[in-house]
Amino acid sequence: MTSQVSSPAEHADGAVVGEQRKPARAKETRRLDRVIIRFAGDSGDGMQLTGDRFTSETASFGNDLSTLPNFPAEIRAPAGTLPGVSSFQLHFADHDILTPGDAPNVLVAMNPAALKANIGDVPRGAEIIVNTDEFTKRAMAKVGYAASPLEDGSLDGYAVHPVPLTTMTVEALKEFELSRKEAERSKNMFALGLLSWMYHRPTEGTEKFLQTKFAKKPEIAAANIAAFRAGWNFGETTEDFAVSYEVAPAAKTFPTGTYRNISGNLALSYGLIAASKQADLPLYLGSYPITPASDILHELSKHKNFGVRTFQAEDEIAGIGAALGAAFGGSLAVTTTSGPGVALKSETIGLAVSLELPLLVIDIQRGGPSTGLPTKTEQADLLQAMYGRNGEAPVPVVAPCTPADCFDAALEAARIALTYRTPVLLLSDGYLANGSEPWRIPEVDELPDLRVQFAQGPNHTLDDGTEVFWPYKRDPQTLARPWAIPGTPGLEHRIGGIEKQDGTGNISYDPANHDFMVRTRQAKIDGIDVPDIEVDDPSGEANTLVLGWGSTYGPITAAVRRLRAAGENIAQAHLRHLNPFPRNLGAVLGRYEKVVIPEMNLGQLATLVRAKYLVDAHSYNQVNGMPFKAEQLATALKEAIDG
């Protein structure tokens, strides 16, 4: 690993720059089982890129990991201000982990705003690396520092490493024909190089990434690589960093297989492509860009070779309208959005319920209401997914629990939509969408068979013996109606939002028919085959069950592990299917004296559980735009156990 980064960096024209100096003495290397690092700076400082590259190298090294990107909604937030701070937190370990960590062991602060915005999360004794070049009087005054925190003793409880990152980056790049401003942009690569040295991260991938990213600008590529190597060399030679750290690969954590680091949105994209191939249907995405769902549109647009068609519509309504048209035409149809977009799409979702066509509606939830907090996470769209349409318009709801699980959730949503001829809502959120973790790439023969049979000809015989096609004649097992491709001879039929007559699909205003159709559509959803919920209760003696859904899985499981390690008996269960609920959920809830439901909303699942099962479920809620912390949940669950 070190041989590559210790060799001299080569300029694009062959000149040698940034040659490594030999350390004055051997440095100590300590073994750790896990580390939490947070990179923080202005939204223009490249903190997300820095964190992403450190994460990629950590994944290639074989550690288990979990990430939490956190950034402003503005494209370029005000420089040097608290609202403009962007951060990226990475938790990596030699064992199985579930969350990005509660508090960083290392904070890299690129300016005073980054320090002030994040110091409250940093425990005493942690390491803080600060870019001293940015601690000018003006910059400190902008965020309310009357005196320099590097000099007033307020950081005495921390291991502070003052590093003039900007100056050192400019010095390392002085042989390049770059302006000072251009050179300063590479300071994030200097910081990445330093942290890569500190934690023995691989470097080859980052150098290849920079060469590819700036292939059309070789001078910029070479400069960034030089800054990256200079940061690594600085860690190797400076006396301020006397210790480096090793976190061994999590060899025993992962089953045998091929792994890659993956974010929730990327996993969803791959899951949709896999579903289309397993269904032998073209994939069609009709979408309007919206944070944090846009990455799915961006990714799917790259895969025309898999028969994927993407349509960036002029608005949310057009996006889902085009997708529903594609479903009518025989495609695996998808529309992606976030909470505000679901509200705009609600009428067309109701139309899809009436037409009984397969359609995937993917909601990457964010803070609300209205446009709310575009880059912050929340899971407050559950009741909208359940009931946010006029009339009785039931829709299945599926929720992934981790970034990698988004792949499987996409396949499951497609299975339900195609089998039961219904729109399906998939509820991810910003935490899952932007976060990442290792993912085992499945073998093709492990994927479900999703192939469907289109209607081919008449399916009903009239009293006079005439054979006709009835578009609403149902499968007796699934209650799904036939899927007839437009243009197939003999399968002509009406579509539209007006109520249909049972069987024929003709327009009907008959009260008894409407009652029958409403109840039939509901029965179809209620009858969807979903797996029973599994309960994790090792001792079998727990009196308290913690029930979760969606992205709360990681924090809940981490909290439960802490309590069990302390000798507490507590059971855990997690819902993937929110409509319909698993058939054994009522029996499971009835086995426990106390049921606690943590949610990033004000108690929406708890409301549903109380109403359906008459269980006195206790809510534990948070709506601050951030995921739960494991310690916070462990404390709340301990109080529930003791209460």
Attribute tags:
seven-stranded mixed sheet, alpha/beta, 21 helices, single chain, 643 residues
Q: Major sheet, described briefly?
A: 7 strands, mixed
Q: What is the helix fraction of residues, given as a range?
A: 25-40%
**What value does the Rg take, in angstroms?**
28 Å
Low-confidence stretches: 1-24
* Percentage of residues in DSSP E strands: 15-25%
Q: How many DSSP helices?
A: 21
Query: Which structural class fits the helix and strand makeup?
Result: alpha/beta
User: What form results from the Cα inertia axes?
Assistant: globular
The N- and C-terminal alpha carbons lie at a distance of: 53 Å
Mean pLDDT: 94
Find the count of extended strands (DSSP E, 2+ residues).
26
SSE topology:
Blueprint: H1 2-6, E1 9-10, E2 16-17, E3 28-32, E4 34-42, H2 47-61, E5 64-70, E6 85-93, E7 106-109, H3 112-118, E8 127-131, H4 137-142, E9 159-163, H5 165-172, H6 180-184, H7 187-198, H8 204-213, H9 218-237, E10 243-247, E11 259-263, H10 264-279, E12 283-287, H11 294-300, E13 308-312, H12 316-328, E14 332-337, H13 339-355, E15 359-365, H14 382-387, E16 397-398, H15 405-420, E17 423-429, H16 430-434, E18 436-440, E19 460-461, E20 467-468, H17 511-526, E21 535-536, E22 544-549, H18 553-565, E23 571-575, E24 577-579, H19 585-590, E25 594-599, H20 604-613, E26 618-621, H21 630-642
Helix pairs in contact: 2-7, 5-7, 7-9, 8-9, 10-11, 10-15, 12-13, 18-21
